[in-house]
Description:
29% of the residues lie in helices and 27% in strands. Strands 9-10-12-11-14-15-16-13-17 form a 9-stranded mixed beta sheet. An 8-stranded mixed beta sheet has the order 1-2-3-4-5-6-8-7. With 579 residues, the chain is of the alpha+beta class. The C terminus is likely disordered. It is built from 19 helices and 23 strands.
Amino acid sequence: MTQNTELTTARLIIRTPRESDVNDIYALMADAETALSTGFRPMTDPSEAEGKIRRGMAGGLMFAIAEKTAPGRVAGVFEVAPHTTKTASGERLNYEICYFLGREARGKGYMTEVVGRMKDYLFGERGADSLTIAVLPRNDASRRVALKNGFAYERLDKRCGMTFRDELVDLESYTLSREEYLNPGSATAKEHVETVERQKWISDGGILYPIPGSATLLPCPDRGVFRIHEDGRTKRLGLEKIDDSFTFSFKVYDLDCEDIMKRVIKVWTSAQAASSVKNLGVIFNGLKGTGKTIAAKLLCNRTGLPVIVVSRPMEGLLEFVQSLCFECAILIDEAEKTFAEERDMLLKMIDGVYNSKRKLYILTTNKLAVDENLLGRPGRIRYIKEFANLPAKAVSEVIDDNLDNPALKDGILKLVDTLEISTIDILKAIIDECNIMGEVPADTTLNIPKAKYKVRVISFDDLDDNLHAELRGYITDRLAPGETVEEWLMAAAGTGEDKKTRRNKDEIEERFDCTVDIQTQPSASLCLYPGLRLRYGTISSVPDAHGFFTLETDWNDGTCLCCAGSSMGKPSLYRGSLF
């Protein structure tokens, strides 16, 4: 259900929620008194409302209630949860109903109007066979709404519910069948329905375990952060809730990742994606301290999905994750280490061939060495976001927030400007040194990654090892006296119109089936020698007269043919930026 819905009563509008409703819905669902009487856990951050609205927009399971006199302000929320059960006469579709109003909208009969209109909609347009309202015994107002709308008391389940204060409570169930709806006042006998849903959950010592069978137990886990628990004796896997969402005890600075987050959420909630069981994958890659894990946790919060944290491979993990019967985010931090010995398991999980419901995989990596079968495969990993140097704005804000003596800021900026890479940890270490010593540390004393020079490096990526010598000879045979390899690669090739756009670089890529990449990289030395670390590997051979050398790469334990480029000089991370 993806289209926008708008229904009306005499005084109210009942519609699909909008992104502009975030603040109103957060205010309603952050109210502890409303949460206690209705049964939900109060929100603690507006991002939770964001995620809830997106799910409501995509699934047609949430509606905003507004007064006609104030259509832009949300006065209440109405939610439905569909459940299909099998009976002797076939499948039956039941909708569980939940509703509440803000304090200012209560006592006016609004909710009786809403439930009356939603009855017509759910039976008439959504094909419901029955509707159910679960009421906490203390909630007299909700019980009156159910009875006024023709719902009949069905049963009392003792101590089967739990409030956000961890109180065990009873639940009263009120139901209305299609037959009773079409023939109000008739005494239709209620059919005994034995549920045979694919998956239920039971709590055992705080751990949620999925079990087969027809028992009415716990619903699937709702929002929150869960880790996978392995029973030490039986090896049974379950879910242990560790928090309602990811929280941060520190200020989160600009990570330059807003665009990728919006893109991931838009694709995940799109009609095309929501109608399939295909997983969506994203990798946040970068060195420690560049913010990739924080960004991954922020994305988890903003999706509004339950989050399953996978910290290690374990027996039965693949089957367990694929069998989860609810949509969720799977967070794997430092995936290249977590699945270093179990890469096949990771690939099969992300493929999700036997998925019960689709999953959003969010991986963080310190280097793009998870598996070559993830790279260049958007069906598995759709997006890769690289976290490198801190944005200039973030550097300035970190200094302003933590530096005791503002007069030292310019000196810190000059030091940071010569680093190989800047991270929060490195920047705070420099600031701490300033606060303790009263001066900017000399760049030769503090243990920070200094890049004294920058070098131009040409790499011939994906070139077969057997073609290294042939490619070197092909280029060197065509160099003019005094011409560098980089100059020749960028020179025009071909004739006529083709000469305007085609370069020797293009010819090399076609002839040798490789990719020519030219980058400026930080280096501790202007002289390239075996053992020198560059950004993506370690030099393994002495450069020849034309600058050709080999590099042992970090990402696939292979050898890459490279060549020194035309320019070298002093490095600068931020020169000419916001400072």
